[in-house]
Design a protein that fits this description.
globular, binds D-xylitol-5-phosphate, binds zinc ion, alpha/beta
């Protein structure tokens, strides 16, 4: 399968959200990545339900909701109602992860688990058959525009190895500091969904930046 591109609207111009969503509609992007931050799990607050709903009204592509919040179980229904097609929760805040994942699936959403840069991939071994996606954080969650952490390549290779063994159809998403320089290497390591905030929305031509991520130069396969 060719890899997917999920531009993160955290880096969009919120005063022109409709324009930026329409740019995504017309681009080669596959999903819209929606970052929800609560100021507790991460040291930043992004936006909530009214903004997600407003964005959804204009979007033609699936919403990939990344919950950087504590107690995500309390809000899964709400995110489904605001238009989430996939919901990703953080391993670090889910004491009953198996239950959380089943709940997301019962809602009819793709179920994902995100790992912070310090969280070992090996911890997923007994849940991986239940997952539709693993999100490897390549920065510490909380802010856009941070520097990519190099250890991510190794983590993606580790998830890919687990996935080959237990769940070959599972998606592997990478989030944070992704740009046209590391895209090919990430895909070669095993990533098949690239999230990109600043490298898309700070580009002079965001749609062209999405196209570069979709067709990165230097890709070997
Ligand atoms: C970071 C968020 C990311 C962020 C990525 O906590 O999860 O999705 O928007 O932004 P860039 O691509 O600018 O690092
Ligand atoms: Zn994200």
């Amino acid at each position: 399968m060719s890899h997917l591109i999920a531009p993160s609207i955290l880096a969009a111009d919120f005063a022109n959200l409709q324009r930026d969503i329409e740019m995504i509609n017309k681009s080669e992007a596959d999903w819209v990545h929606v970052d929800i931050m609560d100021g507790v799990f991460v040291p930043n607050i992004s936006f909530g339900f009214p903004v997600v709903k407003a964005a959804k009204k204009h979007a033609e592509k699936p919403f990939d909701v990344h919950l950087m919040i504590v107690e995500p179980d309390r809000y899964l229904e709400n995110f489904k109602e605001t238009g989430a097609n996939g919901i990703t929760v953080h391993y670090e805040v889910c004491p009953n992860l198996h239950r959380t994942i089943q709940h997301i699936k019962e809602l009819g959403c793709r179920a994902g688990v995100a790992l912070n840069p310090h969280t070992p991939v090996a911890l997923l071994e007994d849940i991986i058959t239940d997952l539709d996606m693993v999100l490897i954080m390549s920065v510490n969650p909380g802010f856009g525009g941070q520097q990519f952490i190099g250890n991510t390549y190794k983590k993606i290779r580790d998830v890919k190895a687990l996935s080959r063994r237990y769940n070959p159809d599972m998606l592997i998403e990478v989030d944070g500091g992704v740009d046209e320089h590391n895209a090919a290497k990430l895909i070669e390591a095993g990533a098949n969904v690239l999230v990109a905030g600043n490298s898309v929305f700070s580009a002079p031509d965001p749609s062209a930046a999405i196209a570069h991520l979709k067709h990165p130069s230097g890709i070997l396969r």
